[in-house]
Design brief:
The chain is of the alpha+beta class. It contains 14 helices and 14 strands. The strands form four sheets. It has a five-stranded mixed β-sheet. Helix 5 (144-163) crosses helix 6 (165-176). Mean pLDDT is 92; it is low at 1-8.
Length: 374
């Protein structure tokens, strides 16, 4: 939601927000990145620095909350400027900004391509983010069957990507230019966001908060009634025609679970926060491992056998957030190995568990080269 122009009354025509595509109820999907070689590990270290973000976006709302949570004044302690994703990416590479906040998929895409590091995820703030579908009211009321047909197609797409996330990630990469590994991080099992077609109360509240942010930025000329803007009758009809229980899904906040088994034992993975995944080049399916020690053991074996690894995933022990294994921090405590996005969180865990904070290279060595790392 970036402006009120599309919402303003125009000869009685309004805009409806008719379905969600994906979202993060607790804020997962927005993120803060810094240049790859920046020494900064936390937002507090950005005091007096310049941070760019697309103004009026959910990432902007996340950033404002995160700055305040860090004990900083967003109007005095940091210099927040507006930059679109493409400009922000270029600014990071040229070290023209000290940090950049953005929404899906850029907080993962930039680090995956090798020129940025993610230091904070929107999940830390709890500021909900949602991505959805809008339609003009005149078209929707005149051709409701077309709107419903379109929504049924999106629901079918959700089914397909759930059943074969690797294949669809590859297809989306071809269609959009976003790397398949990044797509999988967002839409595979236990991913960063959930593909959720229902208009959850948290999503509606997020739209209301976005409008308030735009008001503060003096970007709203004609405020909207969000409760009228959000219209669920079309998605309810689409779900009904496909035999789906909309109200049951509305109450369901669970992610897509791991449906494969541990690659070594054939057993179901008991704890998501301890699991790891490896996408081996040339293999159609991502391998799943029950814990990080077995994940890293598998990486070592793959290296010895000469097989290339496209990407490896782990999960933040505190939040369950899906992470790129080679871009986060670890704590080794006895036989346990835990992953963390934020270095301060890793240090806190290490202090509480008599552990040692380690980088990916310190655990795995620096010989492993991911096949598609940028």
């Amino acid at each position: 939601m970036t402006s009120s122009g599309s919402q303003a009354a125009n000869n009685g025509v309004r805009t409806y927000y008719i379905a969600s595509l994906s979202g993060g109820v607790t804020g997962a999907g927005n993120g803060l990145v810094v240049p790859k070689d920046s020494p900064v590990q936390s937002l507090a270290e950005l005091k007096g620095k310049t941070i760019s973000v697309p103004f009026g976006s959910t990432a902007h709302a996340f950033l404002l909350r995160a700055v305040q949570d860090a004990g900083l004044d967003p109007n005095k302690d940091v210099n927040i400027i507006s930059q679109s994703p493409d400009v922000g990416g270029s600014a990071l590479q040229a070290n023209q900004v000290d940090a950049h906040a953005n929404f899906v998929p850029f907080a993962e895409l930039f680090p995956f391509r090798g020129f940025a590091r993610k230091i904070l995820d929107g999940q830390s703030t709890g500021v909900t983010t949602t991505h959805g579908i809008q339609v003009r009211s005149d078209f929707a009321e005149k051709y409701p069957e077309l709107v419903v047909a379109y929504l049924k197609a999106t629901l079918e797409a959700d089914r397909i990507i759930r059943e074969n996330p690797e294949k669809l990630s590859e297809d989306i990469a071809k269609w959009t230019g976003t790397d398949a590994e990044v797509v999988y991080a967002f839409h595979g099992p236990n991913a960063i966001q959930t593909r959720d077609y229902t208009l959850k109360p948290e999503f509606v509240d997020a739209i209301k908060q976005a409008q308030e942010t735009l008001k503060l930025l003096k970007k709203v000329e004609n405020p909207i009634n969000v409760d009228e803007y959000v219209n669920d009758k079309f998605i309810r009809q689409a779900a009904k025609e496909l035999g789906l229980d909309y109200d049951a899904r509305l109450k369901d906040y669970g992610p897509v679970p791991f449906e494969t088994k541990d690659a070594n034992t054939g057993e179901a993975v008991a704890e998501v926060g301890k699991a790891g995944q490896i996408w081996v080049a040339g293999e159609e399916k991502v391998r799943l491992y029950k814990d990080l020690p077995s994940t890293f053991a598998a990486l070592k074996e793959l290296e010895k056998s000469g097989k290339k690894v496209r990407v490896a995933f782990v999960h933040d022990r505190n939040t369950g957030l899906k992470l790129f294994a080679d871009k986060v921090w670890y704590v080794r405590s006895g036989d346990d190995l835990a992953a963390f996005l934020e270095k301060p969180a890793a240090e806190k865990w290490a202090a509480a568990n008599r552990g040692e904070v380690l980088s990916f290279v310190q655990i795995n060595g620096n010989n492993l080269q991911f096949a598609q790392a940028k």
